[in-house]
Design a protein that fits this description.
Elements: H1 8-18, E1 22-23, E2 28-33, E3 36-41, E4 52-57, E5 62-64, E6 67-69, E7 78-85, E8 88-94, E9 102-106, H2 110-119, E10 123-131, E11 138-141, H3 148-158, E12 163-165, E13 169-170, E14 185-186, H4 189-197, E15 201-207, E16 210-215, H5 216-224, E17 228-232, H6 235-243, E18 249-254, H7 258-268, H8 273-292, E19 298-301, H9 305-315, E20 339-343, E21 346-350, E22 363-367, E23 372-373, E24 378-389, E25 395-399
Parallel strand pairs: 6-10, 10-24, 11-17, 11-18, 12-17, 13-14, 18-19
Antiparallel strand pairs: 1-7, 2-3, 3-4, 4-5, 7-8, 8-9, 9-10, 13-16, 15-16, 20-21, 21-22, 22-24, 23-24, 24-25
């Protein structure tokens, strides 16, 4: 465990005695930012299962119901809402599990501003707060027969605990022994269409009358398990991911030549002549887009498989002798009863007494000065410190991150 900055002790004493922040006493909380008052809680009706959001525009005296993007946090018995910056509100739920108690409501981040332009109305977006960081997902694209699957299989074999695949969604029915949540997330078309509208999907396509797609949550679940997510998708899917809020590494794999690609397709012996010609036509268009679209960060030429694989590992910063860190990002353990205060970019969570300024033997400090990622997925990189004895001058601050 590392130590907190030395200046943190005095800052915590001042901040805790001043009692910054807002604490909800019921199932709703209010945060004012400029002309807008954000009401967070059970705002619609008693049957609402998730935390809702409404906005009161003071100058107009009007209520606005925004479009809410991202996975919405479930209602809890109580919560605290604290303005972190002018662009986001931190919500700390009471009586929730460690991986479900910290949430961010983004109100004016780059992602939210972009969605406001697209949708032409008021928008907010939720993301779950997580300690620790995750490696950027890897998007790999390339024409059929170029060897993407072989390269990915080599990665998975050499680094079995480092990489994982997201489980895609589809509206088609399961086949044979397919299991929900393992082979696909099988869902109703109306449900998937609504979630696409809510910004929950990175990419999607209609194939033979059924929808297929990759949800943001499916990618984040892989990162939550401590693995780096690999997305094997076509150029159009990669374009959609690039346009999303997800930060990823984009790699396009090219054949050394169209003649070589044709040889490989024919050597597989799995397609008819008509299918081979169609794949070759599609490959030409994909290669042109892959090279000239600006979507991809790296172009790999699969002339020699071993050389191509070594180049792929270099792009991903891998080395045969490097230790594999399979630790996963974590949530935050909080008791059901606690009080919340704020000082600059530090959130002070007093777990020993509900009265600010009094002695406590269990103070948790949440540092939100340098988050990464964000809505509509995860806000990562949160730092957490514990204070063993608040009454003894805040001695013994240890890092929990």
């Amino acid at each position: 465990m590392g130590e907190a900055p030395a200046c943190l002790v005095d800052d915590l004493q001042n901040g805790f005695s001043n009692g910054f922040g807002s604490k909800s006493k019921h199932l709703e909380s209010s945060v004012v930012i400029g002309d807008k008052e954000y009401i967070i809680g059970r705002t619609d009706n008693e049957s609402t299962l998730s935390i809702g959001v409404k906005i009161f525009v003071r100058s107009k005296g009007q209520w606005v119901t925004p479009i809410v993007l991202g996975a919405k946090p479930k209602l809890s018995k109580d919560h605290s809402a604290v303005l972190v910056k002018e662009d986001r509100i931190l919500v700390i739920k009471k009586g929730s599990t460690s991986d479900d108690c910290i949430w961010f409501l983004e109100i004016d981040t780059g992602y939210v501003r972009e969605q406001k332009k697209i949708l032409g109305t008021e928008v907010v977006a939720w993301s779950k707060g997580v300690r620790g960081n995750a490696e950027k997902p890897v998007v790999i694209s390339g024409p059929s027969g170029v060897g993407k699957g072989t390269l990915i299989a080599m990665l998975m074999k050499e680094f079995p605990t480092m990489f994982g695949f997201s489980v895609s969604h589809t509206t088609r029915a399961p086949r044979g022994m397919e299991k929900d949540g393992i082979h696909y997330h099988f869902t109703e078309r109306s449900v998937m269409e609504a979630e696409i509208k809510d910004g929950k999907f990175l990419e999607f396509a209609s194939v033979h009358g059924n929808l297929y797609g990759t949800s943001i949550e499916a990618v984040e679940v892989v990162a939550d398990s401590g693995k780096r997510c690999i997305l094997d998708i076509d150029v159009q899917g990669a374009r959609s991911v690039r346009a999303s809020s997800l930060e990823a590494v984009f790699i396009f794999v090219c054949p050394p030549s169209m003649n070589e690609l044709e040889k490989r397709l024919r050597a597989r012996g799995t397609e008819t002549e008509e299918q081979i010609l169609k794949r070759l036509r599609n490959a030409e268009a994909e290669i042109e887009q892959g090279k000239s679209s600006g979507i991809f960060d790296h172009i790999l030429y699969n002339d020699n498989l071993e050389d191509c694989y070594e180049n792929l590992k270099k792009i991903l910063g891998l080395d045969r002798n490097m230790p594999v860190d399979d630790s996963s990002p974590k949530g935050i353990d909080l008791p059901e009863e606690h009080s919340v205060s704020k000082l600059d970019n530090k959130i002070l969570i007093n777990c020993g007494t509900s009265e600010l300024g009094k002695a406590s033997k269990n103070l948790i400090v949440l540092d939100v000065s340098s988050p990464s990622g964000g809505a509509p997925g995860r806000t990562r990189g949160l730092k957490v410190y514990s204070v063993d004895s608040f009454s003894d001058g805040l001695n013994g601050i240890d890092s929990l991150s």
